[in-house]
Automatic annotation (TrEMBL):
The keyword Kinase applies. InterPro entries: Carbohydrate_kinase_pred_CS, CARKD, Nnr, Ribokinase-like, YjeF_N_dom, YjeF_N_dom_sf. Keywords: ATP-binding, Isomerase, Kinase, Lyase, Metal-binding, Multifunctional enzyme, NAD, NADP, Nucleotide-binding, Potassium, Transferase. Its EC number is 4.2.1.136, 5.1.99.6. One of its GO terms (molecular function) is metal ion binding. Belongs to the NnrE/AIBP family. In the C-terminal section; belongs to the NnrD/CARKD family. The lineage of its organism: Bacteria, Bacillati, Actinomycetota, Actinomycetes, Streptosporangiales. This is Bifunctional NAD(P)H-hydrate repair enzyme.
Length: 509
């Protein structure tokens, strides 16, 4: 698990640690970590136009230095690189400059120029192999002001490798919100702990590869606000078969999906549940959907139902909603599953129904809701673009107001439950934005709920494996020379189902 803490907690931990540390020690640790990552990039040839092995000596490094301690970190790191033979130029932005950092840079042979000298700044940025973005860190508030915004734009257009100091300037540390211009980094070197805004889009999309430098804050940080699960966590959360398991002990999800008109969603949801490891899947729907599911998944136990599920048989979790329709019939079925004391996942059409019948969610057993931004906006009475821009805020609000575990799908999937840190899913690919992909996810999570996972563990494990299956399906066999991202091809929801077993296998290595 990777842990992220909000700015208030970072500041409090910093105060506690500083009281026990020599003056300037934290900034020296931060700058040393930052300089070491930059030196590694210059040595490996990843930075700008420098060829492999050419290293720090003779490289051209530009520091964008704002007026706070973020600028200070960049200036001290620049001084360390200058001592190793880099040509370092600091572009000074903002009302003041970190005096100690600037003095260190100058005595190491670095030079500085003012951001008010646009020609000089642009020339330096254009010639750079590597740019350190030290404009703003955790002290940044709101959209970038000038000259920061213009400098961020020049940096983002340059061919140099961009390394953000602590976080890309223009990204809100606590939320990942970007209002206006922001630096797009290749690498972000963050200090003491991850910041939530580095995990969540749009911030995550600006951060590139994130490296954590330990500056000793750990013991003073307290509980994280946001976490990023890793494969080992998911391996613990996804219930697997035990030696004594039989098909009933492994969990029996009931899937209530599809209708006379919509059939594909049901096929995908049942497929997700089967490949998710359910011992047996019961499926209940209108006749046409039942026929199709039986044809595609003969292993599912199906029942034709109208407005009651009384004949379906024993299940230990429900998945309700994909392709179900939104009329009275769907409402009756949803009311029945939500009236049980079993865990229930509500997705797709089911979410439209509960948006007008919130009372159905007043229950004691676990409820998982899996909306995309538009569906969540409807549940909260707001607009989809508001949800997209401030994902953490909206998913937390939904969990609080609806009393459920809420998984908000999208460019970064985020999962909230009251009293717990938000879990951000690290897997996935834009190729997953394809019809039926969400239905697969609902079945997968349903399998984990029926296997006994808690609501948040089931949701986080489902999102992780679904995202990984999507990546594996899109990038194909690993033998190719090109990195997986470059190999990606369009996929269908069915391809995702097919790749779920391979995704499971990566967990246990
Ligand atoms: N907190 C910690 O534990 C540590 C912090 N360090 C560094 O210190 C940074 C925080 O330093 P500061 O608190 O000085 O804050 P920052 O350096 O992040 O920024 C504060 C300055 O930016 C200006 N500013 C704020 N919003 C702006 C906007 N939208 N446009 C233009 N200017 C804006 C402010 O007026 C202020 O001068 C961290 O991000 C990190 O880089 C490290 O040195 C090590 C330890
Ligand atoms: K920065």
């Amino acid at each position: 698990m990777r842990y992220a803490h909000e700015v208030d907690k970072v500041r409090a931990a910093e105060r506690a640690l500083m009281a026990r540390s020599p003056e300037g020690a934290l900034m020296r640790r931060a700058a040393a970590g930052l300089a070491s990552v930059c030196a590694g990039l210059l040595r490996s040839g990843r930075a700008g136009v420098i060829g492999p092995g050419e290293g720090v000596y003779g490289s051209r490094v530009v520091l964008l230095a704002g007026s706070g301690d973020n600028g200070g970190d960049a200036l001290y790191a620049g001084a360390l690189l200058a001592r190793r033979g880099a040509h370092v130029t600091a572009v000074l932005a903002g009302s003041k400059t970190h005096e100690g950092g600037l003095a260190a840079l100058r005595s190491a042979g670095g030079r500085s120029l003012d951001a008010d000298d646009p020609a000089g700044s642009v020339a330096a940025i254009e010639a750079a192999d590597l740019i350190i973005d030290g404009l703003l860190g955790i002290g940044g508030r709101g959209g970038l002001r000038e000259p920061h915004a213009t400098l961020a734009g020049h940096a983002s257009r340059s061919v140099a490798t961009i390394v953000a100091c602590d976080l890309p300037s223009g990204v809100d540390a606590d939320t990942g919100v970007v209002s206006g211009a922001a630096v797009r980094a290749d690498v972000t070197v963050t200090f003491g702990t991850y910041k939530p805004g580095l995990f969540v889009d749009p911030g995550a999309g600006h951060a590139g590869v994130v490296e954590l430098v330990d500056i000793g804050l750990g013991p003073y940080l307290g509980d994280p606000d946001v976490v990023l699960p890793q494969a080992a966590d998911v391996d613990l959360w996804a219930p697997g078969p035990s030696r004594e398991s039989n098909k009933y002990r492994r969990g029996v999800p009931g899937v209530v999906a599809g209708s006379k008109t919509f059939t594909g969603a049901a096929v995908m949801s049942v497929g997700g549940a089967i490949r998710g490891g359910a011992g047996m899947v019961r499926f209940a729907s209108a006749e046409h959907s039942v026929e199709l599911v039986r044809h595609r998944w003969p292993e599912a136990v199906t029942s034709v139902v109208d407005t009651s599920l009384s004949e379906v048989g024993r299940v230990n979790a429900w998945v309700a909603g994909p392709g179900l329709g939104t009329g009275e019939h769907a409402e009756a079925l949803l009311a029945e599953v939500l009236g049980t004391d079993l865990p229930v996942l509500v997705d797709a059409d089911g979410l439209t129904v509960v948006a007008r019948r919130r009372d159905l969610l007043w229950r004691d057993a676990p409820t998982v809701l899996t909306p995309h931004a538009g569906e969540l906006a409807r549940l909260l009475g707001t607009e989809a673009d508001q949800v997209e821009a401030r994902r953490l805020e909206h998913v937390r609000r939904a969990a609080e107001e609806l009393g459920a575990t809420v998984l908000l799908k999208g460019s970064t999937t985020v999962i909230a439950e009251v009293g717990r840190p938000v879990r951000v899913n690290p897997t996935g690919t834009p190729r997953l934005a394809t019809a039926g992909s969400g239905d697969v996810l609902s079945g997968l999570i349903g399998a984990f709920l029926s296997g006994g996972a808690s609501a948040i563990d089931a949701a986080a494990a489902g999102a992780y494996l679904h995202g990984l299956a999507g990546r594996l399906a899109a990038s194909g066999p690993a033998s190719d020379e090109r990195p997986p991202d470059d190999r990606e091809a369009p996929i269908s929801a069915y391809d995702v189902i097919e790749a779920i077993p391979a995704a499971f296998r990566t967990l246990t290595g």
